[in-house]
User: Fold these one by one.
Assistant:
Number 1:
Amino acid sequence: MKFPSMAEADGRTLGDEEVAAAERVIRSGMLNSVWGTEARALEREIAGVYGSRHAIACSSGTAALHLAVVAAAPDPGDEIITTPITDFGTVAPILAQNAVPVFADVDPSDGNLDPGAVAALIGPRTRAIMAVHLFGAPARAAGLRALADEHGLTLIEDCAQAWLTELPGGRLAGTVGEVGCLSLQQWKHITCGDGGVAITDDEELARRMRLFADKGWDRAAGRSHAAFGLNYRMTELQAAVARAQLAKLPGVVAARRRTAARLLDALKGVPGVRLPRPDGHAWWLFPLVCPDGDAPELAAHLAAAGIPAHAGYLAEPLNRAPVWDAAIYGASRYPLDGYEPNPCPQAERLVERTLLVIDWNERYTTRHVETIAREIVKFRARP
Ligand SMILES: *Cc1c(COP(=O)(O)O)cnc(C)c1O
C-alpha cells in the first residue's frame, strides 16, 4: 500500500489556497518582504497562534536558530549546551557565532535532552541551552527553564519538528524559552519550501534578531548599519504560501494525533517496543524505542513491507560527526582548538541500536496504521 509522503503532493496540504497566495504576490509586483505585506502578516499570525509579542520571519529554520544564538550574544569561545540527536541546523548557528557546542546526553526513552546531564555541564563559559522538541515530543522544558534561570542562561527552543507541541500544563513548546524557532522546510508539518520564524516576548532580543536578519540595517535610520548582520529575509512568496499553510496547521496536527493514537493503541502490550508518550506530542515522526537493540532489523523488516521506517534517525549522533575532525573556518578551528565533543552513551545507543522512526503524515488512514501495526507484531512474533 502507498504511504503518502511529505515529498509528494498527496502527502502535503498544498492546494488552491497556496496557489492563490503565490499568484497574489506575483501579480502585486512586490516579491520582497522589506516593502511587501505578506511576511509582516505571517509574523502577526504566528505571534497570535503562539501568544508571543514578537515573531521574526526568516529564510529557514537554521536561520531562525542563528538569529536566536545572535540574540543570546555569546562571546567567541562561550559554550552553548545542546543535544546530539537533532538536525545539524541546531548546531551550525553555534559555530557561525564562534561559540562552542557542548553536547549533553539524552533521555533514552525519547531522545530529548536530559536536564541532569545538562546541569552537569554548566560552567563559567556557558551562555545558553538549545533544547530540541525531538520528533514533536515535548522536551523537559520546565527542568531546562529552571536551570537557565538558576544560572542566568538563555534558553532557546528548537521547535522545527514541534509545531503546536504542548508542554505539561498546556503551554505551547516555543513559549518557555527566551526564543522559540520554527521551520517551514519541505519536510515539516507545514511548508513553503524553506522558511523559518523566531518568536520571543523580549523587545531587545527581537530588535537584535530583526537587525541581524536584514544586514544590520535599521530601516528607520536611513541607509545606516547598526550591527553586523546577514540577509536572512523571507520572501513574500514564501510568506504568502506559509500563511495559507498556517491556516491548515491545526488540522494537520489533529489528524496526526488521531492516527498516532490508533497506532499506540494497536501496539499496546507488544513485547520489545517502548511506545512514545502521547502527551502534547505533535507527531512529526512516530518514534519507537526497541530496548533490546534490534531497531535496525525492525526498520529493515518494515521497509521491506513498504513502510517508510528508518533506524537511528542519524548516521551518527552529532557529537560523533566527522565535522569535529576537520578545519572549520579556512584552515582554522578557532575556538575549537583541542575540542573533543563529550561522549553521550545514551544518544549513541539510541542512534546505533534502539531508535526507530516511522514517517508520519496527516493523510494516513486507519489502513496505514493497521499495516504498520501488523508488520511490527509480525516481526516481534517471528521465531
Ligand atoms: C529541520 C530542522 C532544523 C533546520 O531547519 P531548516 O528549515 O531545514 O533550516 C533545525 N532543527 C531541527 C530539529 C530540524 O528538524
Number 2:
Amino acid sequence: MNNKLYGSLIFELSHPGRRAYSLPRNEFGDYKVPADECRKHDAELPECDEMTVVRHYTNHSENNFGVDNGFYPLGSCTMKYNPCINEEIAMHRDFANLHPLQPADTVKGAEQVYDDLQKCLSELTGMSKFTLNPCAGAHGELTGLMIIRSYFESKGDKKRVKVIVPDSAHGTNPASAAVCGMEIVEVKSKADGRVDVDHLKTLLGDDIAAMMMTNPNTLGLFEYDIPEITQLIHDCGGLMYYDGANLNPMLGACRPGDMGFDVMHVNLHKTFSTPHGGGGPGSGPVGVRAGLEQFLPVNNSAADKDFAISVNPYHGNFAVELRALTYILTLGRENIKMVGPLATLNANYIKECLKDDYELPIEGLCKHEFVFNGLKDKSTGVTTMDVAKRLLDYGYHAPTIYFPLLFHEAMMIEPTENESKETIDGFIDVMHKIAQEAKNEPQTVKEAPHNTPIKRVDDVLAAKEPHVSNCTLNCL
Ligand SMILES: *Cc1c(COP(=O)(O)O)cnc(C)c1O
C-alpha cells in the first residue's frame, strides 16, 4: 500500500486545478443565486485527480474493521450477521426516497412494513402491541417509562416515583429513569450475578412505579427468579419493564410477555441486525401487554388524547425497521428458533475452552455472552486492555472491555449465532496464544498492537484532547 496516500488527508493531496469530476449537462436552464446568498470566498475544497481520490478512500475503507472482514466478539453491543439482502432492501429506491410527510395514500407499502414488523415483534415477545417510534434502546427505555408514568397518572396515582434497577444494569437504565423524572433505587446482585430477591423485598412499597430487568442480564446470565420477582412487583402495584437489548438468546426459547412483563423494548440494531458501529443508527421499538395499548406514543399531530405521549415527530428509523423485517422474514418461523440456542451454544463453547487461561468469576451456563475478569494469572501484569490490543495484531476485533463494571478487568465476549466452528476455534487459539505470551513475553502484549497502521494510542488524551485533523500524520 502507498503509505503516503494512506497517511494523508485528502486536503494534503490537493493541487490547485486538478479535477476529478464532470457535472451532468444542466437540463433546467440557468438559475441565478441571489447575491446575498453567494459566498464571499471560494469554498476550501480539495482539488485532486480521480485516481488519487479513489485510492485515498479505498485505502481508508480497507483499514476499517467490520463483520464483513473479521470476527467481532463485541459483547453487549452485538455486531452480528448483517446480510447484504437487508442493505439491498433498505436502499431500494422505493423505500429510500419516501418522505415522512408524504400523503398517507401514497405510502401503503411502508405502512404494511410497519404493520408486519409490529406483528412479528409481538409474536416473538408475547406482547400485545408495539410502537416503532423510538430510535435507540435508550430512547425505548425512556418511552417505556413514560408509558408507565402515564398509566399511573391515568389512575390518579401520584406517589409512584421510584424505579428499581439492578446494580448490573446497563447505564442507560438509570439514565432513562432519571430523564423521565423518576427516582432510582438500586437492587443488589447476589454472588452468582443475579438479582438478590431478599434485598428486593426490602425495597418494595406503594411508591414503586416499576422494576427494570435485563434478561439475560448484562453478565449474560438468565435471571431464574423472574416469576417470583414479577409477583413481588405486581403485588405492590408496580409494573415490570423488560430491557430487551439482549433478546438474541431468548428468540424461539421464551417470551417476556409470558414471563409477566408489562412493557419492554427491543434493540432492532442488535438482535435483528443493522450495522451500528460509531453509535448508530438504531431502533428501539416498545411493546406493551394487553390493557396498556392506549398509552403507546402517538405522532405529534394526534397528540390530543389525555395522557398521550409523543417521542418522535415521525415514524422512527425506517431503514433499520426494514432490515429487521427482512432479517426476520428471511430466517422464517422455523429458523428464527435456532438463533437463541446457537448464540448460547457458541458463547458457552468459548467460555469453557478458555476458562483455564482467563478468570471466570461466575461459573455455570451463560446465555449469548459471558464475562471474564482478565487473565487468570495476575502475576504477569498483563491487563484486559493489553489482551484487547494484542487481539488486533491477530486480526480480531476486541471484545467489550471494562464493562460491566462489576469486575475490574471485565472482558465481555459475545460470538453471536452465525459464526462457524472454525471461526470460533481460530479465536480460541489466539486467546490461548495471548495467554502464553503474557507469561513468556509480557512486553509484547503490553506494547501491542504492533501490526496495525496506528500503534497504541493514549486513550485518555485521545478522549480529552482529540486532534482529529492531523493525528494521522503525527502517528505514522
Ligand atoms: C445496548 C443496550 C442498551 C442501550 O441501547 P442503545 O441502542 O445503545 O441506546 C440498553 N440495555 C442493554 C442491556 C444494552 O445492551
